[in-house]
Amino acid sequence: MMTQELFQMALNVTDPWYVKDLKFDSDNKRLDIYIDFKRGSTFSYQSDDETELVGLKAYDTTDKVWRHLNFFEHECYLHARVPRVKLPDGKVKLITTPWEGLSNGFTLLFEALLLQLVSAMPVKKVADITKVSDDKLWDMIDRYIESTRIHEDFSEVSAIGMDETSRAKGHDYITLFVDLKERRTIYITTGKGSATVEAFVEDLEAHNGSASAIKDVSCDMSPAFTKGVKTYLKEAKITYDKFHIIKLINEAVDKVRRAEAVEMKILKGTKYLFLKNQQNLTQKQSATLETCTLSNMNLKTVRAYNIRMAFQDIYAAKTEDEFVTYLKKWYYWATHSQLEPIKKVAKTIKRHWNGIVNYHQSNINNGVLEGLNSVIQATKSKARGYKTFRNYKNIVYLLTGKLDFSIVNCKYKEI
């Protein structure tokens, strides 16, 4: 009897519930705990409109089992006959016990542990460790993401970053929206067109946010994103993300290098040499770059590289006038470089001039988003289950959404 009382205290089983029996199977490494309720007890039931009905007597009972935290190396299961109660409208409903989680067959504490584990390692690995099917884990993650996001409040969101990424090579695209101030993903949707912004606004307003409150948006120079922002976020100023712009310039530099490498063998295998910043070069790469920059070489690739480095320096300007002056000088240099890939990207920048200059006022970029995306990509290579949009979306929210699961699981912070 003393053992049952100890387990009752450990499980926080309170009146009218009590631990009735324990069965310990050392051979199968399993502990079964049987919970019951006192005769004559009354229960409460929360209706669909969140009205709590109290003082309801058991109409009948249903036997249920829940997986709980392991007892040392032994799997632990809770058993209980759960009352069904008759409501004033005549309907008979099963009550919710204090220990059961959002998923059928798990306790709150066990789900809290699973959430912590899947946040730190691949879902398949967690499934192997806990002997829970990965399909059931994905279903649990989905329930927690959906239930927690209902409580999200976006009323303070005013600056966002948006970017598309693919679930896998050759697969469909998804678009991520990040709160740049809180540095977290707040919305994910399929596609990469202007309709993604419309979908974001609907979700934003469903969580106390406002399209008119969004004053700054960082995105790439995609016509679809530009159209979406101008259509659905009319109060927002677009800042074209400098990392995407530099990526375009890098691609232009590499086109120059590839064309020149046909005749200049010294450029073979030097792709990343001209795409890195000088401080990130290896000692060998630095020596090769020094050789390439000798005046008698007069390489087109080196000219393209210098133009690329000069563009990055523009962002160090202390005033907007200085920024614009540097940008104008850079544009003249690029368009008179006689390097067609460089001239082409310079004209693209000219078409998006205002959104580039806006950087000096907004001082925003998608660096936060790129950092979050790197976390996602790192786990994607090690995990199974990302083949569906639902699972990919949920792992992104799980890793980068900063969701507070304690809102729907009071045990979450106890693990």
Strand percentage lies at: 15-25%
Secondary structure class reads: alpha/beta
DSSP summary, beta strand count: 11
Uncertain spans, ≥5 residues at pLDDT below 50? Answer: none
Radius of gyration from the alpha-carbon trace, in angstroms: 29 Å
What is the terminal-to-terminal distance?
A: 28 Å
Mean pLDDT, as a whole number? 89
The number of helical runs is 15
| Morphology | elongated
Question: What is the N-to-C succession of helices and strands?
Answer: HEEEEEEHHHEEEHEHEHHHHHHHHH
In helices, the fraction of residues equals 40-55%
Number of domains: 3
| Sheet of most strands | 6 strands, mixed
Secondary structure layout plus pairing:
Elements: H1 2-10, E1 17-25, E2 30-37, E3 42-46, E4 52-71, E5 74-86, E6 92-94, H2 108-118, H3 123-130, H4 134-149, E7 159-166, E8 173-179, E9 184-190, H5 195-206, E10 216-219, H6 223-232, E11 237-240, H7 242-261, H8 283-292, H9 300-314, H10 320-335, H11 340-351, H12 353-357, H13 359-362, H14 367-380, H15 389-400
Parallel strand pairs: 2-5, 7-10, 10-11
Antiparallel strand pairs: 1-2, 3-4, 4-5, 5-6, 7-8, 8-9
Helix pairs in contact: 4-15, 5-6, 7-9, 7-11, 9-10
Structure in words:
Helices cover 42% and strands 21% of the residues. It is of the alpha/beta class and 415 residues long. It has three domains: 146 residues, no CATH class; 82 residues, Nucleotidyltransferase, domain 5 (2-Layer Sandwich), CATH 3.30.420.10; 120 residues, no CATH class.
